[in-house]
Amino acid sequence: MRRGRLVINADDFGRDAEVNRAVLEAFRLGLCSSATLMPNMPGFEEACGMIRDRGLSSRVGIHWVLRDGPPLTDSIRRFPRFCDAEGRLRFNRPGGWLPACRLSSWEAWAVAAELRAQVAACRRRGVPLTHLDSHYHIHTEWGVLQVLLGLALELKIRRIRISRNLGTSRGPAKRLYTAWVNKSLKRSRLAGTDWFGSVDDYRAAGPGEVIGSREVMVHPLYRDGCLTDDGGELLADRLSLFADRSAAVAFGEEAS
Fold it and tell me: Which residues contact 31 (CB under 8 A, 6 or more apart)?
């Protein structure tokens, strides 16, 4: 890969005790340089303790959740687009991959309240938050993104994960939509990197094709006692693609 600032981000920190243990080990082994925290999941409190104890607060952002688990506010439960009959977060796209381009004013208000609550939950526990991404990349839905952009200054969110712009399973419409989202983030000076994708997305791009700052997402897990990515391959083996992984940084470290 061509050089440029590299961020290796472990998603789903706080999901449960097993994921927490795997993310912490990935940090220890230098297999991630950053992580994002799920404020509404069972392992959240434990993860916050780990962050404090291991001095990781400058390397952790928020993994904003609008799908999976309970919301932290009551208002969003009233909207079937975001919650199911049991009141759990279940964001639904209008159809297939098509983005939710518009929210009603009341939906936008409820989404804003939930974002404020999840950010506040992290900061009350001493995690200042270096950046924002989201579970299932829901922050890149146009209607949701407009809420986020409107609140970024208020919430002191300095960096936001861009829409996935690598990989082979993206047709012309997806590419156009991705470019639209990322242009909006760059115009707002919130884009975290020039490129974002999974390890497989970077593999598909090929060496030398990705020039500029990069974020790669990983999902550390333990399988049969080994530290893996979510696909089951050893995490260290997957990341061998990145020759400069030992120099990976967090979003709070701005030098390229």
Answer: 8, 25, 218, 220, 227, 235, 236, 239, 245
User: CA-CA distance, 91 to 103, in Å (whole number)?
Assistant: 12
pLDDT tens, 189-219?
A: 999 999 999 999 998 887 567 788 999 999 9
| SS3 at position 190 | coil
Q: What is the pLDDT of residues 63-88, one digit of tens each?
A: 999 999 999 999 999 999 899 999 99
The two tokens of residue 147 are 């809420």
Q: What is the largest CA-CA distance in the chain?
A: 49
> In this predicted structure, what is the pLDDT of residue 255?
46
- CATH class of segment(s) 6-247: alpha beta
Report CA torsion sign: 178, 184, 186, 190: negative
Distance in angstroms (rounded) separating the CA atoms of residues 61 and 36: 5
Tell me the DSSP string of 34-82: EEEE-TTSTTHHHHHHHHHHTT-GGGEEEEE-SBSS--SSSGGGG-TTT
Gap between the Cα atoms of 72 and 21, Å rounded? 24
Helix locations, the chain, DSSP H: 17-28, 44-53, 105-124, 142-155, 172-187, 199-205, 235-238
Please state the pTM of the whole predicted model. Answer: 0.93
Which pair of tokens denotes residue 235?
């995490």
Q: What are the extents of the domains in the chain?
A: 6-247
